[in-house]
Amino acid sequence: MPELPEVETVRRGLVKVLVGRELVGVDIRDGRLTAPADPTAVAHELLGAVVTGVGRRGKYLAVALDDGRTLVCHLRMTGWFHHVSELSERPHLRAVFELDDGTWLLYSDQRRFGTMRLIEAGELEEHWRGRVGPEPLDGTWTPQMLRAALARRTAPVKALLLDQKVVAGVGNIYADEALWIARIHPLTPGAAIGAVRARRLHDAVITVLERGIRHQGASIDTYRSVDGQPGSMQERFAVYDREGEPCLRCGRPIRKIRVAQRGTHYCPNCTPRP
Ligand SMILES: [Zn+2]
């Protein structure tokens, strides 16, 4: 599933091709994408709108329109925006946007978990509330905020990092990478993370997310950027997807366990069990 670095890479690609463009044709072919709203009605609402910006909140994309409304998109498992100069049919094509410069933005989604929702002007902040917590890279997120979010929680810190209200945008890959950098075992209860380790983890989360963005995200499954290029972060994982391979810090084999139903990678030597 795309996490913050992958979604941010998509956002940057969408800025290049969408901002200033009018949507001169909109065809939403899958009702699940806009549910419970009717896809034909949403397509009609979008027709003629001019894109004024593309933002991101956690793993959500926010396409701003000139009438003040916002199309909020979530790629979930396999959603993919692809910019092309000629329209061609392809498998799993769920939505087609024709742009006023003669190009096309296609949305494919094999697993069909992705969502698109049109938010009325002035209602965006309310939409985020209760869905996403602090934004890790906007300069407002502090180690104290992370520690407070983990305090009194008995759940494993790995599971808490996946909670979008603890910190927005972190998923399975970047949680494992951040915990390894911070030298914290994934099963450590949230409440056991004191001020020192909270600061280490906070800094590690920022480090891995920024590194992910720098390498255009990780392409371990279907993820590609808007221009169709894979990212290269998967070549730089310290622990994720490296079970049995040597730890980059100590050389001992990386181990894989399940935490919160998710495959979790860690070094048993660098991060002993709590
Ligand atoms: Zn190690």
Series of secondary-structure elements, N-terminal to C-terminal: HEHHEEEEEEEHHHHHEE
- Averaged pLDDT: 96
Radius of gyration: 20 Å
Low-pLDDT runs of 5+ residues are none
Main beta-sheet strand count, sense and barrel state: 4 strands, antiparallel
Could you say which overall geometry the principal axes of the C-alpha atoms support?
globular
Which distinct ligands sit in these coordinates? zinc ion
Lateral arrangement of strands in the main beta sheet: 1-6-7-5
Helix-strand category:
alpha+beta
* Beta strand count: 10
| Proportion of residues in β-strands | 15-25%
Query: What is the percent of helical residues?
Result: 25-40%
* Helix segment tally: 8
Distance between the termini: 29 Å
Structure description:
28% of the residues lie in helices and 21% in strands. It has 274 residues and is of the alpha+beta class. Strand 9 and strand 10 (262-266) form a beta hairpin. The longest helix has 20 residues, at 195-214.
Keywords:
single chain; 274 residues; alpha+beta; four-stranded antiparallel sheet; 10 strands; 28% helix; binds zinc ion
Per-chain topology:
Blueprint lengths: L3 H15 L4 E6 L2 H4 L4 H8 L4 E7 L2 E6 L4 E5 L4 E6 L8 E7 L4 E6 L5 E5 L4 H5 L14 H8 L6 H6 L9 H11 L12 H20 L40 E5 L2 E5 L8
Antiparallel strand pairs: 1-6, 2-3, 3-4, 4-8, 5-7, 6-7, 9-10
Bound molecules: zinc ion (ZN).
